Amino acid sequence: MKLKKLCALALAAALAVSAFPLSALAAKNPKKNADEMDIPAILEDVDEKGTVNVYHWWTAGGEKDAIESVVDGFKEVYGKIKAKSNAIPGGAGGAMVMKVKVLQQAGKSPETFQAHPGQEIEPYLQSGMLLNLNQVWDYANLSERALPGLEQLCTASDGNKYIVPIGIHKSNVIFYNIHVFEELGIEIPDHEDITWDEFWSLCDQLAEKMPEGSYPIDLGDRKGWPASQVFEDIMLGTDPQIYEDFINGNYNVEDVTKVLSTYAKLMDYVAPDHSSRDWYEASGQVVAGTYAMQIMGAWMQPLMTSMGQEYGKDYGIFTFPGTEGWFGMCVDGFVVSNDSADVNAGVRWAYNVSTPEVQTSFSALKESISPYSDTPDDTYCELTLKFKNQLTDGGTKVYPSFTHGTALPWSASTSLQTQIQEFATSSDHDAEYFANKIVNVLKEASVKGDWNLVD
Ligand code: GAL
User: Fold this and answer.
1) Do 306 and 250 touch, CB atoms closer than 8 A?
2) pTM for the full predicted model
3) What average pLDDT does the segment 254-276 reach?
4) Which atom of ligand 1 is nearest to the CA of 403?
């Protein structure tokens, strides 16, 4: 994994990130400073009573079971602490930032909440509400245990760690229903790394043969982010240099128009009412055979499993065309508020997500790659192991997702989702018009990064 190439989060301080003005409002609980806390002693004290409110966005089949296993794993160690799981539906974390803002303003900061490392945590950081977790990293030996490059990704603009990673998914994946292809007599390529030509040919054959009301692809973008997910896949699959330039703030209308022109072509094969469904509802329709394919990150696996679908028998995957040899990296983790009612319980939660016990049960149910190299390979199902081997292969190039918080400021990423969803739902998919709007979004957010993805 060439994650060392994903440098430059350290430069994030220089990036203009729009922080929400949390600090302006008095929180009801005093802020704790990690430097004044003996975190090892807190972690070793398993008898203290308390409450940990855990906010996350795992509501779809499979992911729900996965987070419940983490709650159970927590209770096994810290049995006297009440662990309350609070789900913010929608996926991808866009709604989390606003939810946390409201809770914090009301003096009810969650003890811990889900986040992606990178730009997504900067607004929390700028408002001074995150607890420094350097001691947790040291205590749990995370620098040594983390997969190469991950520590750097989890190091914030001020050089400290505020997040403990729990799982990793590959984002540049297409899921498809094997039975649909078979029933229509469409030959499935014998390799997962398909070319653009093969992809378009499959789309054409499906469009020709699928019955009325069924479509080759669905987006399931009621929440906006799945449309942005497709945009980032197409961008990397068009030219990794365009992707690197885009997240570094060296965007131009011409490049974005090129990406959106391909997106416009893709829309010819997408169900017209794609934005009326959430991603997991679309997946249900893929299983039902109404749509043949869905462009989605690998977190769709546990959902498929929860619907009784088996990889290789009922569903297959393709690497998103043009992205062969690249791994779109989506990391989930937990951060801790420094002004919640029970900061100690939050710290214990963050630590506990990294333990081998929790990692084993969570990774198996979430079908995610453990961020820690000591999680045994027999934890994984066939497909996750394949993705894990890709990620850890020295020849694989890794790129950070901007739809999932890491590579663009939160404000840019959410506005982008709105623009891209509008593009996808517009009747004429005017690439140049929306390219201008997208470039303006990045300009307004003063996007400036120093990522080096391409040699
Ligand atoms: C991503 C997250 C995944 C999955 C997905 C859909 O942001 O990393 O684990 O939750 O959203 O909800």
Assistant:
1) no
2) 0.94
3) 98
4) 7
